[in-house]
Amino acid sequence: MSKLSEYRYAKTHEWVRIDDGAAVVGISAHAAEQLGDVVFVEMTAVGAHLKQFDRLGVVESVKAVSDLYSPISGVVTDTNGGLLDRPELVNLSPLDEGWMVKLAPDDLAELENLLTSQKYEETFGEGH
Amino acid sequence: MALKRGSLYPLHRQAGAQMVEFSGWELPVQFNSILEEHRAVRSTAGLFDVSHLGRIVVRGPGAFGLLQKAFTNDLTKARSGRAQYTLMCKEDGGILDDLVVYHRTEDEFLLALNAANTESDTAWIRRLASDYEVSIEDRTAETVMLALQGPESATLLARLAPPEVTGLPRFGCREEAILGKPVWFSRTGYTGEDGFELVADAEVGETAWRAILGFGVKSCGLGARDTLRLEAALALYGNELDPRTHPHEAGLEWVVALGKGDFIGREALLKDQERSPQRRLVCFRMLERAVPRSGYSILVEGREVGRVTSGNYSPVLRYDIGMGYVPAELSAPDTELDIHIRDKFVRAKVVARPFYKRTA
Questions:
Q1: ipTM of model
Q2: Looking at beta carbons, which residues of chain B come within 8 Å of A60?
C-alpha cells in the first residue's frame, strides 16, 4: 500500500492518490466503516469526463445508499472490476484493493483543494 | 424528544455497536458486520436485544373476551402456554398493528407490539376495555426482551434453561426460573429460523444476555434483524403493513378468523373475502445487480404499478431481493417488473414467497 502521505481527501470522504500519472480514487476507511458492509458499487463508465466534485458513482451498503464524488477532474480510464464480485474489498482494504476508479487527471493543482491525510484524520478520525 | 434507551443500552455502547434511531428508540443497528451477524443466525445462532417491542400485560376475567374482540385471529386456538401471531384492525379492515399474543394463564396475556405503535395500540385497547373486567399494564420499561435465533438456539439455551423450555414446540411458551428469577420463554422469532424469545426483569435479562454471549453467540443488531425477516418475507409494520392495507392484500388472510364470532373489522374483512384483492404483496428478485429500497417505483412497460416496501441484498441468496405491492394481475411468479433505481430501470421478476425457508 502507498504511503498515507500520498493520499488527499475530499470532505465527502473520497481519497485520491497519483500513481504513475493516473489519479486512483476510493473511499476512506472512516467512510467504509460508517457505511458498513458494502454490497454493490456503481461507477461512472470509462471514457466519461468528470469535473472535480462531480458525482462519480454510488456505494450501496446493507444499511444505506451513498453518492460518490470525484475528488479531481479528469477522464475515467479504468474501474475496479474486482468490486463486482467482491464489493467487500471496500471494507477489507479501503485504501488499496478497494479502489474504485482511475482517472487521467486534468490538473494536479486541484489536489490543493483537498485535505491532507493528517487534516482528514483530525477532522473525521476517531473521537470526532 | 429524547430517544428511548433500553436497559442494555450501556452494554451495547461498550461493545462498540453503531446506534441508529428507530421508532423513537436508540438501538444498535450493527455490532460488527450486518452480513456476519445475518449469516451467524442462518448457520449457528445470534442474540438480539428486542427490548424496544412494547410489552403489555392484559389480565382479568375479561381478558380473553377483550382480546378476542380486538384481534383478528382466534384465541381459542391458543390455549394457555401458546403464543399466536395476530392482527389488530380498524372497523374498516385496515391494519393497526401486527403482534404476538402470549397466552400465559387462563386470564393473563402478554402482548408484544411494534415499538412505533405501542402507545396508540395501548390507547386503542384501553378504549375497548371499558366493557371488560381487565387490568392493562405496560411492562416495557421494567423488562428486557431478548431473541436467541438460529439452528443451534435450543442446544445453546439448554445451558441456561431447563428441558421444559428447550422442548417447547414452535409457538409454545412458559415461565421458568433462571437464577431464581422468573423468565418468560417462548419458541418464537422474526428471522425465519428456529429460536426463542425471553422476557425478564431488567437485571435478570442483563444476566441472560451476558451468559448467552459467553457461550460464544454473536450479538446482532437491527440491520441483521431486518435482512433476516426480509429473506423470510415477514412483514414489517410501516413498510408492508399500515392502516390503509387490508390483511388479504398482504397475504395475511390466514390470520383472520372470520368464523370465530364478532371482532373489530369483521364486517369489512368478510366483504374482502368475497372478492379477491386488487393489489397484492409480492416478492421479487433483481435480475441485474442493483439494490431495491423502500419507496422505489415498480413499473411494467413504463407505467408505474406500485412501490417497493422493503428491499436489500440477500446475504444468504447473494442477490438483491425486495417486496412490494402490485396489481393482483401482476402478482404471479415469473411476472417481469422494472424497478426504478436512481436513473435506471432495472429488471426484476416476481418469485414465490418466501425467499428463504429453513430446511429442518
A1: 0.89
A2: 291, 313
CATH class of the domain comprising B9-51+141-231 = alpha beta
**Cell match 402507545: residue?**
B119
| Residue B315 with chain A: CB contacts under 8 Å | 62
CA-CA distance, A15 to B286, in Å (whole number)? 31
Model pLDDT, residue A126:
64
Per-residue pLDDT of A9-67, as tens digits, reads 999 999 999 999 999 999 999 999 999 999 999 999 999 999 999 999 999 999 999 99
| Helix, strand or coil, per DSSP, at residue B286 | strand
A21, part of any domain? yes
Phi/psi at B328 (5° precision): -55, -35
CA B4, B7, B11, B14 dihedral sign is positive
Query: What is the predicted pLDDT for the residue at B1?
Result: 72
B137 three-class SS: strand
Q: What is the CATH number of domain B278-351?
A: 2.40.30.110
DSSP structural state of residue B353: S
What's the rounded Cα separation, in Å, for the pair B325 and B337? Answer: 12
| Number of structural domains found in chain A | 1
Domain containing A28 equals 4-106
Q: Are the beta carbons of A37 and B34 separated by less than 8 Å?
A: yes
Q: What is the pLDDT of residues B267-310, one digit of tens each?
A: 999 999 998 899 999 999 999 999 999 999 999 999 999 999 99
What is the pLDDT averaged over residues B172-181? 94
Q: Is residue B315 less than 8 Å (CB to CB) from chain A? A: yes
- Chain A interface test: which of B19, B22, B35, B341 (most A C-beta within 10 Å): B35
Homologous superfamily of B55-138: Aminomethyltransferase beta-barrel domains (3.30.70.1400)
Of all residues in chain A, the percent with pLDDT exceeding 90 is 92
Instruction: Classify residue A83: in a domain, yes or no.
Output: yes
Q: Given an 8 Å threshold on Cβ–Cβ distance, is B29 in contact with A63?
A: yes
Identify the pLDDT of residue B359: 83
Q: For residue A34, is it within any domain?
A: yes
Provide the residue ranges of all domains of chain B, joining segments of one domain with +: 9-51+141-231, 55-138, 278-351
CA separation (Å) from B86 to A11, A82, A117, B168, B241?
A: 49, 46, 55, 20, 13
pLDDT at B358: 93
